[in-house]
Amino acid sequence: MRKGKTGVYFIGALGSISITVVAGALALGKKLAPPLGMVTGTDIFDAMDLVAPADLVFGGCDIRRPDENGRDIFDRIAPVHPAILMQIQEELRDYQRSIDTGCSRNCGEAIEKLAGNAACGEETLRAEIGLIRSRFREFKQKHGLGEVLVVNLASTEPPIEIRACHGDLAAFEDRLDKNDREAVRASTLYAYAAIAEGCPYINFTPSNGALFPAMVQFAEKNRVCVMGNDGKTGETLVKSALAPMFSCRNLEVMSWEGFNILGNMDGQVLDHPGNKESKLRTKDRVLSKILGYAPHTHVGIDYVPSLGDQKTAWDFIHFRGFLGAKMSLQFVWQGYDSILAAPLVLDMIRLAELAGSRGEFGLMPHLASFFKAPIGVEVHALHDQFQLLLDYAEKFRRGGIHAVSK
Amino acid sequence: MRKGKTGVYFIGALGSISITVVAGALALGKKLAPPLGMVTGTDIFDAMDLVAPADLVFGGCDIRRPDENGRDIFDRIAPVHPAILMQIQEELRDYQRSIDTGCSRNCGEAIEKLAGNAACGEETLRAEIGLIRSRFREFKQKHGLGEVLVVNLASTEPPIEIRACHGDLAAFEDRLDKNDREAVRASTLYAYAAIAEGCPYINFTPSNGALFPAMVQFAEKNRVCVMGNDGKTGETLVKSALAPMFSCRNLEVMSWEGFNILGNMDGQVLDHPGNKESKLRTKDRVLSKILGYAPHTHVGIDYVPSLGDQKTAWDFIHFRGFLGAKMSLQFVWQGYDSILAAPLVLDMIRLAELAGSRGEFGLMPHLASFFKAPIGVEVHALHDQFQLLLDYAEKFRRGGIHAVSK
Amino acid sequence: MRKGKTGVYFIGALGSISITVVAGALALGKKLAPPLGMVTGTDIFDAMDLVAPADLVFGGCDIRRPDENGRDIFDRIAPVHPAILMQIQEELRDYQRSIDTGCSRNCGEAIEKLAGNAACGEETLRAEIGLIRSRFREFKQKHGLGEVLVVNLASTEPPIEIRACHGDLAAFEDRLDKNDREAVRASTLYAYAAIAEGCPYINFTPSNGALFPAMVQFAEKNRVCVMGNDGKTGETLVKSALAPMFSCRNLEVMSWEGFNILGNMDGQVLDHPGNKESKLRTKDRVLSKILGYAPHTHVGIDYVPSLGDQKTAWDFIHFRGFLGAKMSLQFVWQGYDSILAAPLVLDMIRLAELAGSRGEFGLMPHLASFFKAPIGVEVHALHDQFQLLLDYAEKFRRGGIHAVSK
Amino acid sequence: MRKGKTGVYFIGALGSISITVVAGALALGKKLAPPLGMVTGTDIFDAMDLVAPADLVFGGCDIRRPDENGRDIFDRIAPVHPAILMQIQEELRDYQRSIDTGCSRNCGEAIEKLAGNAACGEETLRAEIGLIRSRFREFKQKHGLGEVLVVNLASTEPPIEIRACHGDLAAFEDRLDKNDREAVRASTLYAYAAIAEGCPYINFTPSNGALFPAMVQFAEKNRVCVMGNDGKTGETLVKSALAPMFSCRNLEVMSWEGFNILGNMDGQVLDHPGNKESKLRTKDRVLSKILGYAPHTHVGIDYVPSLGDQKTAWDFIHFRGFLGAKMSLQFVWQGYDSILAAPLVLDMIRLAELAGSRGEFGLMPHLASFFKAPIGVEVHALHDQFQLLLDYAEKFRRGGIHAVSK
């Protein structure tokens, strides 16, 4: 039995993905759309008693202020039919008005430029963490929530240099005590605060400041579920489905060139080399892990404003087969970034809530298929990653597993 | 221990795939190219003691006569580097000159037009089968072979209407006795003759006249290994790798439109509606079997002479995700048909030879991943099919399995 | 000086193109969108004093009845921003309610199936023409219009067999008198009625029953402007822009394969072989006329319901260059059919109105760039066709040309 | 009447384009292939009495040494049928052995790394120019040539900063006298030397060090024909054919993103930011010049070794039409760089030879269609550029023009 409703606190709560998650939960609640795109919407997960999207309470913080303009909603979730949007627009605006002002500490110039008057004025890192924790508590109390989960949907930060202190919890705590601002990014503070408050934490971004080894140790110590990094929604999803085919046929991938163009705020931020760097690190790794060797590869990401949320990717795969003959496969992916990401966020909220309620803690490897760079998982082919989730679900279907009280 | 060399008899021995198989075995034997494109060329299969491609002796029959023109070889295997071709051209010409005249009984107008003076003059079906069997025996004796495998690489026949007699061996034998020419196509006669001679038989074509249930019963009765249908080399290969991705993400495939253009003799024959029909049947089935529902789908095949052996396919996949948003994935496959098919033929020859030597018989379900429509196998996702082969290979790697004497 | 407002009568007035034309005129009138996509929206045509879209009065007939469902408008013009649609939906619904019941005489099974209770009950062709003429007059009187133009936007009919009577006005009049129903399609009756009433007539469809030579003679005799056939909006537009490039470089186009998929009612009708035939005739001709030789070419059109109005075309162009090397160009066109067509319809209405007011009559060759198969024009490269329009416009810019009273 | 044979001296004589030009002239001379890809191979130019490719004598210099390996020829001109290559390989090797050692003065690190022992040891710029001039003279004398043309086919240099001295011949001569090495690149020295020797000069590269205004003044002063810059062979060719289509339809190009991948030495050099910069300058300009406004545009070039000479480009064009609807056109160009470039080089040699023989001098604007950034020409649409060439040819067809003696 759940004690009260479940809350979800988004870092980056006014971004397109957050808005789409909330819109989706509203639309599903009103039966305006089927749960397509949501993995947990299939009957495989029926035996699990996952929390219903409509029973979630959403909140969060953002460094931007909500757009008061009524047109905004239609533009932000453009691919959704206006007839649906009209029936949820009031609640969506209420959600937007409820958002806290976020903190952009150490996020790089691209993000900080977007932050008008972001609230990061505390004197010490510990004080900032304290402020963030109080926000989580306020959200919980205000809505009388049994539990709060925290999901990082903020813009990608530049990668933080991983030093010895990030590998050991004690060393990292010391850096916080010493107020070493070089050792953290905003994502670090939010992740730390979430775990300190006992909130399951999901890092949907490639930002590596959130779930480095010391932070995972912190989660284990506090018996909190965490998982990341970088939601796998588009080009990399296709990559992880297609690359194994070449192995199955002993075809040598000589080159795999990918070009991504997109026009949402994610694209705008990724247009800055520092922030792009984080993304490319998680994208580039997948291929050589699946193939077992490193083909010539390049992943380009360009900001093309006219595309809005419609990410378009062209991948050119040059491969060699029998008797050295060269052949090619190209694909063009045209998907709405937030539309693809939002249902996965709902999936992970539901599965993390379940894991938490059952007393699981630390990393959640069965969520590997949702991430470009799943932490602690050495399985990269989509099919094999999905099998981890099916195996997890299978235990419930067999009936032997029940919720465990904390 | 193998008794003598292993022979391979091709139906359609002057087609591009056959020529490429022979060229490949020659080039591999001379170490002119690595075994790319050949699944059994990976170290997974090292423990199996498969017959080396260079140890195979090739022969076969064709309804066409070999081109005496020297330029022919370069054109037929165009994507192979001329430096390789120059070193094998003499042996390739010898092979071409050794080919028997084939029979085109009941293959449809498109194929029969290609057959100049094909040898099908026997009075009864039993006599024709007897003639074919004698060809197999002559080939075996001439080269002192321990075993002969038969592979159907002939042009696609129009589908035969499957009647009650095709479902029961006794009924079918009766039809042969009664000389019922409507019950057979050329592929039927060759398959029957192979099995009667104890030769493992592979149907690489979509022609359904070869391995209907009565024929499989005949193989089981004669303790002969058989498998088919329709080698999976291009568009359908990609389909069976990609379609599961949509299931993994609960994305609804609304439409999957595929357009294939190609210019080799296969394309020329498939330009005839009857012959094309066979192909479309095996191609179309895959999708709904993997997805569990039938999206709007169309597979077009057009003959474009300028492309030669380079099959080009454009697939447009229209799918629906969260909140009903429509998105798309397109791919363009540009592969050389014969270059892709030939190593799979070698794979299956090697694996069928092994199976035969171990006393296995009947269908070989572990070869499912090689076929568009694997007989007797209800597994359609490429990854799952490949797992069947890995499981088979795994038994050898564990060391518990040895060759069984017949 | 124009005498009263100008009316536009659409055959196929409830189709997507008609609806989009009306929506566009409304939106332009309310300054909700710039005149993009409309050639006459550029300043080249400023000197011409063309009738403003907002000053047009629209009506027409259709074999279907209007959808009374409010959701309809959003679905029909899906690519238009809902904020625009909300401001014109009332007027759009008024327009839809005003539409006459049309006649589907002899249009082929595909169209006739769509026609519920289409009004074609007259006893003779002459009587049917009379009925149609009376509709035109009623429309003119009801709105006090100075002039009415008629535009054929109906679904594509199967091609009519062009006989001797279609080449000579007297012979054709005789066929009408003799009530020879084989000599006409619905498009014939509407075109004849329009010309008889002195209404400029545009055939935006590939239907060849409208403007055969005898009909053009009738237009010349009655001093009425006419033009057709088949609006050039998508794949063929690109073709006529790209094909000259190959000529400019002396590159030999060996094959040009085009695959079109679309899901609107046009697609549904074109799914029938008879109706598709009309379309393919106008599409196929373009290439060989531009290149001066006939490459291998195939144009496929498939109905894919999920695409709605978004026509998607893949074209594969295989060409040969220096030393016989084969290369390729592919393109994928993703355009909304009605969005592309509607502004061209407005262009032609404006230009035909001008031509009529100046006393021009017969064919309007300066409109060639708008058509796939411009009647009486032997210029097929897009650029050269556009030059005809620029030359026409240039006369006005030079100031030497003024409206001529009839 | 020509006095003796015509010589062609290539800067970059061992590059793929040069080799292909020579191979092409040989093959055309032996009637092994038709003159496809060569604009002057069409009958439009029949009246011009252009020099036959087979009558050209080729030489040149390169900073690399010829590959002595016999396999080289097949790899360098891979798309040409081996049967053709076998008949010209001896002469091609003779050509390669005849090449002078070139100079890589000031060409940027990427090129200089390729130059083993390039001969640039002279003390002053004037001395280096003198050395180059002597090479041109030696080539002329050795073969008893009536005239020598110089074509720059060397790798792209980083752009030179255009200063005041590049705009005025006297100022530039002063810089040479003062031995100001910052004012020149290797291309400058070769262009100057060619003009000084009275050799028509073509700059097929984007290097801006060759034909700045002062150099054009030098050509006019010496009455020598020159033209450049940057041969238009692939993506930009398509751009200049397609972009006008959007203007013709008043469709707003919002974004035009282009990604080029290639694997020849050109690609290798362009992988260096400095050298790539030159290329992007000439590529980027075309679009805004044709459209009259600047869409969001990005041109990426990546080095993908496995592709060799097969340049592949994906362009994504996002455009807005009627009522603000967004649509797209994508194209994929797969062409062999040298195969496309070589015949244009032959075209320009033939046309420059004619112009020189007729006493024309200075820029040759009728060659605009061959260049990405034609100097002194404000016409950018392919069709309009081609018209300049047709107009030039038309004068000959009318018979009014004859060769003028110098």
Can you tell me about this structure?
The structure is a homotetramer. Chain A has about 400 residues and is α/β, with parallel strands linked by helices. Chain A is about 40% helix and about 20% strand. Chain A has a 7-stranded parallel β-sheet with strand order 3-2-1-4-5-6-11, sandwiched between helices. A 4-stranded mixed β-sheet of chain A has the order 8-7-9-10. In chain A, strand 1 (about 5-10), helix 1 and strand 2 form a beta-alpha-beta unit. In chain A, helix 1 packs across helix 3 and helix 6 crosses helix 8 (about 215-220). The first copy, chain A, is globular. Residues about 400-405 of chain A have low confidence and may be disordered. The interface between A and C is small, with 7 and 7 residues.
Task: Put the structure in a nutshell.
Chain A is of the alpha/beta class. The first copy, chain A, is built from 13 helices and 11 strands.
